[in-house]
Amino acid sequence: MKLSAKLPLGRVHVEHLLERAIDSVGQIAMHEAGALDNHLLALRERWAVARKARGVGELLRDQIDLLPATRLRLAEDHELRLKLWRGLARRFNNAA
């Protein structure tokens, strides 16, 4: 058993943990808000491209052409999301 597990948490320590939690959750919320904005921009781009299509074939080709950028954006969002959540978990694991 860790020595820190045997010691009761003091008020100052609890306040510090709460500050860290609020900071981390705020960072996660900001990331999610940015990710939603990026999804909305991508949707607008897809809609604009779709309106310009002169036929079903062109519509499909243009939408398929946008897939690599979509996959990259989603992968980057997911990677940053995992990093933020792991950072939050690490903060609490180190504090315990």
List the helices and strands and how they pair.
Layout: H1 3-6, H2 11-52, H3 56-65, H4 67-95
Shape: rod-shaped
Runs in which pLDDT lies below 50 for 5 or more consecutive residues are none
- Count all strands and give the number: 0
Succession of helices and strands: HHHH
Strand content: under 5%
Write a structural description.
The chain is mainly α and 96 residues long. The chain has a domain at 37-96. 89% of the residues lie in helices and 0% in strands. It has 4 helices and no strands. The protein has helices at 3-6, 11-52, 56-65, 67-95. Helix 2 runs antiparallel to helix 4 (67-95). The longest helix is centred in the N-terminal third of the chain and has 42 residues, at 11-52. The mean pLDDT is 88.
Features:
96 residues; mainly alpha
Short description:
This protein is mainly alpha-helical and 96 residues long. It is 89% helix and 0% strand.
